[in-house]
Every structure is written in C-alpha cells, then in structure tokens.
Amino acid sequence: MRRFCLPGAVALLVSALPSAVQPALAQETTLFARDGFTLRWHLQGGLNAVSESNLFWDLAATTAPASGFDPDTDWLESYLKPGLSFEARLDGGAVLYGGASAVLSHTFGTDAFAAQDSGATTLEEAYLALRGGESEGISYDLSLGPREVSFGTGMLVANGATNGFERGALKFGPRKAWEMAALGKLSHGPVTGSAFYLDPNELPGQDGRNALAGLDLRFDDPKGGYIGATYVDVIRSGSPYPVAAPGGIGAPSILAGGREATRTLNIYAKTNPFGTGLANWVFTGDLALQRNDRIDMEAWAGRVTIGYSFADRPWSPMLTLGYQTFSGDDPDTATLERFDPLYYQGSPSAWATGSKSASTFINSNVNALSLALQLSPSPRESLTLRYAHIRANELKSPIQFGQGTRLDLDFEVVAGVTTADLADDLFLEYSRVINRNTFLTAGVSASFPGAGIDRVIGRDASPWTGGFVNVVINY
User: Fold this and answer.
1) Which ranges constitute the DSSP H helices of 38-102?
2) What gap in Å lies between CA 111 and CA 117, rounded to an integer?
3) Is the pLDDT of residue 408 over 90?
4) Quick check: 427 pLDDT over 60?
5) 363 exposed, middle or buried (CB, 10 Å; 0-12, 13-18, 19+)?
6) Separation between Cα atoms, residue 198 and residue 196, nearest integer Å
7) Of 109, 268, 83, nearest to 174 (Cα)?
8) Nearest-CA neighbor of 25 among 45, 47, 43, 9?
C-alpha cells in the first residue's frame, strides 16, 4: 500500500525555496550555537481543501453496490510537523548530527477512501548520524534511526510511510520517513556508494512486516546529469501478490507473502546539458528488472522522457514527453510477470501513472504516455498542465490494489479489463511562493474513462473530476 501525495504541495517546500534564502532560514531557526554545536528548530504545516466528484468513475456502484460508497465528497486536511535537529563538530573534523520530528495530521469530513474525521500523531524522524573524511578524498556518512531516504529517481525507494485512513491527511501525505533506516555512504569525488536497510512505516492494522536491504551506486557529473543503479532485496514481507486466473477466466488468486525474496535492479540516468545543436534538451531513462525464484516471478518496467526548455521565450516554457510501462501478469503463463513498484514516489511530477488514475492503479500492469507543459509567469509562480493516456499491459489480469486501497475495504476496484484503454487524465496546477515561508498550490483535474472502464461498468462511464487548494508553511 502506498500513500497518495498531493502534487506539488510538499515538494514546493524545498524546490520553490530560493537558494539564497536558505542560509537566512538556517540562521532564523537556530536555537543555540556555540563551540561547534548548533541546535535548530523546524516547523512544517498546511491546510488543504479538496473536492471530488464521481470518485473512481463510480466503479463501486457496479462492483460493490451494497457498500454504500459515496462517489462525491469534500474534505479538509491539516498537518503539523515540528522538529529539532543538531550538528556537533568533533575533534578530528567529523560531524555528529541528527534530527527528531513528529507529524500531527487530521482529516475533517470524508476523504476519497471513505475515512471520516480521522487523524493521528506519530513519530516521524529520530536518527543519529556521523559524517566526515571530506579532507581525505573519501568521505563517509553513517545513519541509524527513522528518517527520509530515497534512491535514484524514486522509482522503487522513496515513500517510507503510509498516510490516510486512520492517520488522516490522505492527499497531503506528510509522512515520508521510514520506521527504521540504517544507511551507510562512501563518496569519492562524483561517485557515491550506499548500503541500506529500510523498514517502512506502515499502518498498524495493515503492517505487512516488510523490510528491504540493498545497494546504490551513483555517478553525478559536475557538469550536470547522472547515472546510477539501485539493487533492492525484500528480505522480509507478509504482503500478498495478486495472480491472474489461468487464461484470465475467473477472479485472480491471492499469493500470501508473495513479496518476500523479490529482488529488483534499477538502472537510471539523466543527460548532461548539451552544447550547440542540442542545447536545452534533456533526456532521462529508467530500466528495472525484477525476479523472485521462490515464486517463479519475472517482471520488468521502464521509463524514458524527453524534455525541451524554451529558455529564451516568455514564461520559459518547459515541455516534457514521457512513456512509462510496468509489466502485468500474463494469464496464459505459469510465471508471475506482475511488476511490484515497492515504495515509489507517487506524485505526477515523479512516478504517478496519471493524476487521478494514480490513486486507482499502482505502477503494475499499466503504461502511460504523458505530456507536461510548465510555465513560469514570474520567479515566484509556476503553472503546469499535465496529460496522461493510461492503458493496461495485460488483459484479464489484475490492475487493482491502487495507492490508497487495501484488502479490507468494503468495495473492490478493478481486477482486470478486457480492453486496454483505461483513462485519459488532465491536471492543471498553479503554485506560488507567497514568501520564503509560505506557499500556495491549487489545481483542478479530470479523468475521462476509457473503454476498459466502460466495460466494467457496462455503460459509458462519466468523468471523475476534482480540485484542491492548499497553503503550506515551512521553517
């Protein structure tokens, strides 16, 4: 299960903050500084008003009419994230540092997954770390305890915690930290190698007892661009896998504990800035191969993007074309080919398959052709229009277990389709930096169901529409 993170809301906290402001903010939040020891306070928080109509294309009315699920709802989300961090310079030049924070979240009203007036207070980060060796050519960074950790482009390892349901703040997704993280990094110039152990912060009532271990090796070119590889081994899990019925006839079966021993290799890259002839172009690529010999599993996934920046034009338009695809389980084979996206970053600016569709389908047995146009009317504003055409890779094969769904819901989403066309999603988002601590984001979106969804319902399904507006503070 994954959290669904509202596009842009929390990402703005870092990306929209001008770099020149960051030292001033560090000084502003300093509680104590003396003899190489610095203690700082931190605070994030936000309010998010959401409205949704014809949720999930009103599939529940057909697949589970007795559930009483209301496809039209409005709700208000809130969260606060207070924290402390410190740095202490030791004899010899090493730095001992760490951080602690908590998340207080609440939803007023009924959200998209029928959670009503829910909320919780949970520990977010509580880690100690040691770094050093910069002057010796090879630097190290060792860390232990709950904290945020991500690798590569966020295809597999990014979302360390689950939001929504009894925790509230479904779309804000303020929780990001892993429940336990052990991390070791060695760097030499532009090359960084990392070893990690991660235990996700899952919902208490739906804890799959997952644990990951792996390695990441990355080269960051000083001119820009990068290339790297991440290897992830699921060393413990009770999470199930759905398996297509033989020939696609009948309901899928559930393979209990299927995720355990799944191993994935992800290779990722982004080009350096090009010179004359290809100036303003950027290309990215991801490829993932997945195996689990214990259950005869062979899956794969990938993405390519092409971007062009009209740097000399008004509003500096940036146009990006992308295609991403994730294998599904072929019902005509005994091998399980369904790709497991693990703990991916699920916002439209990262690895969401569509905007609204991303809360219905995880990155498994789907592909999407996407187009994004970003405009900057002013240094403090951005306007982004996203389009995605989403299709199934395998017919009569599971495409359910979306980002917010879980096995004990009273209604099911989609187990499979007989026509590949799933949906066309449109999303328009406006973001503004009000000041160095306050950010505004608003958006409207619509998902137009394809023939695959129409056939599940048995008629032409109506579009799923919605909108939001939120304000976030960050110190």
Assistant:
1) 60-63
2) 9
3) no
4) yes
5) buried
6) 6
7) 83
8) 43
Helix (H), strand (E) at residue 274: none
The position carrying tokens 């390892």 is: 157
CB-based contacts of 310, cutoff 8 Å, min separation 6: 280, 316, 317, 318, 319
Q: How many helices (H) and strands (E) does the chain have?
A: 4, 21
Q: Say if CB 361 and CB 393 are below 8 A apart.
A: no
Q: Is the Cβ–Cβ distance between 103 and 125 less than 8 Å?
A: no
Residue 201: per-residue pLDDT: 97
How far is residue 390's CA from residue 354's CA, in Å, rounded to a whole number? 7
Please tell me the predicted confidence (pLDDT) of residue 135: 72
Find, among 295, 291, 300, the residue nearest to 334 by Cα. Answer: 295
Tell me the three state secondary structure of residue 138: strand
Query: Where does 189-239 show beta strands of DSSP type E?
Result: 191-199, 211-220, 226-236
Give me the count of residues in the chain. Answer: 475
Cα 62 to Cα 339: distance, rounded to the nearest angstrom: 27
Contact 233, 263 (CB under 8 A): yes
d(CA 347, CA 343): 12
Q: Is the dihedral of CA 58, 60, 65, 68 positive or negative?
A: negative
**Closest Cα to residue 340, out of 299, 307, 293?**
299
Mean pLDDT, the chain, integer: 90
Phi-psi region of 396 (alpha: psi -120 to 50; beta: other; left: phi over 0): left
Nearest CA among 90, 181, 191 for reference residue 132: 90
- Separation of alpha carbons 396 and 333, rounded Å: 13
CA 174 – CA 166 distance, rounded (Å): 14
In angstroms, the CA 429 to CA 385 distance is 7
- 370 pairs with which residues across the strands? 322, 388
- For residue 257, count other CB atoms closer than 10 A to its CB: 16
- For residue 364, what are its two tokens? 């498994």
Q: Average the pLDDT over each of 210-214, 330-334, 409-413 and give the range with the smallest value.
A: 409-413
Determine the Cα–Cα distance for residues 131 and 337; give it in Å rounded to an integer: 41
Lowest mean pLDDT: which of 25-39, 158-172, 308-322? Answer: 25-39
Tokens read off for 134: 């910069």
Distances (CA, A) of 46 to 106, 197, 343, 370: 11, 31, 24, 29
